[in-house]
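Researcher: Good morning. I'm working through a list of sequences from a screen, and I'd like to move beyond sequence-only analysis. For each chain I'm collecting a predicted structure so we can compare shapes side by side. This is the next one on the list. No need for commentary yet; just the structure.
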Amino acid sequence: MNEQVPPSPSRRKVLRTTAGAAGAGLGIAAAGAPAAQAATASAATTTTAAETGTAAEAAPRRRGQTMAGVPFEGRSTVRVGIVGLGNRGNGMIGLFLALPWVRVVAVCDPVREKAERAAAKVVAAGQPAPAVYTNGEDDYENLCARSDLDFVYVATPWDQHFPMAKAAMLNGKHVGVECPVAMTIAELWELVDLSEQTRRHCMQLENCCYGRNEMRVLRMAHAGKFGQLLHGAGAYNHDLRGLMFSPTYYEGPWRRLWHTRLRGDLYPNHGFGPVANYMDVNRGDRVVSISSFGTPALGLAEYRAEHMPPGDPSWKETYIESDRTISLVQTAKGRLIRLEHDVSTPHPYSRINSLGGTKGVFEDYPARIYLEPDHTNDQWADFSSYAAEFDHWLWKEHANPPGGHGGMDYIMIYRLMQCVQLGLVPDFDVYDAATWTAPVPLSHASIKAKGAPQAIPDFTRGEWRQTRSGVDSVRPS
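Model: Good morning. Structure tokens for this chain:
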């Protein structure tokens, strides 16, 4: 049974108002007023299917048209609105401003000083002062309703991602969302339906897909260097205890509170996205089931006992999230993907990032490789020796990109905005967003069912059998 996550009060509030967002946007004009009603109905159908364990076989009837292979419209200037200006949003705004064909038109955050700080960055970059939306949690709706926006970027707490993506599409805007794109299977289906009905792209902005190592492995896999692919692994193993208990790093304890609600993999996208790309998931293969197992939840409580004073609000919290979650995902072709999640115990950072096939294996952290016939001594070899031949053209053109996470944030924003400007098909779409996020609720359900496999819906409704382009893109002429 795929248990749905109970929405927080703030999300219930925004869901009441989102359906009434301005209806004159491009998406409503193209799809007609019944779009939202149809999406809601299909989401309800999907919830029933998921609860009976037949989600993959009982995909709701398509009420729009596929978004696979659909290009952006193309435009000389890409006009962007940014919602959420905390750590992530504030860090990303400079990457949008670094692109001469991108204009930041509007910014939104309920904390006025954060929005004003972002607006000052826009002005300092030589652009006109953006509109500022700071009138409470729902003011993002007014940003989405603007007629002078092409793309909305969402970098807010997780429970706000779904209503904000929904509002953007209903108002005719393409939208890119930080991880995860939603928190329930019903929400994922509704985003798929809305993208198809409004003809707007809804994308999970998975920056790790644009890491230099990840893109090199992807090209090598497509070139057959690993032979027939068999298995892969990805993770988000990152000690976040200090940040989750910090009174200033996050805007409130929202991230820590998810550890009181779910037991499964809260953040699968960084590990899942790259491996799914290696295996052409949704582009020739698809993931069909997930089995998850979790350790006891001890790490956060121990950290609290050692570091938080008596009377701190965190002492009212009961943590249920597994300190380490391990999931096995199986594909239609029989391949296996191992996912891990651990943010509650001390350990070095690792996304694992591994791929194996009939001719060899790559493992990251540190990067090392062994391939036949290149290597014959059962010793790991130097992965950098493959850079000249297999580095992606984006990394050859931007060898020292600005921004965080080793430059992959910039590479992602550059490529996305390039696709919007030139009218290209995006490297990933709403089907990838839904697939990469599905382990959030499904791993929780599997752990509660003592590891019983949970069906992963086919969000493409059968189109996964068709090969098509992805992150391994061709440089535009």
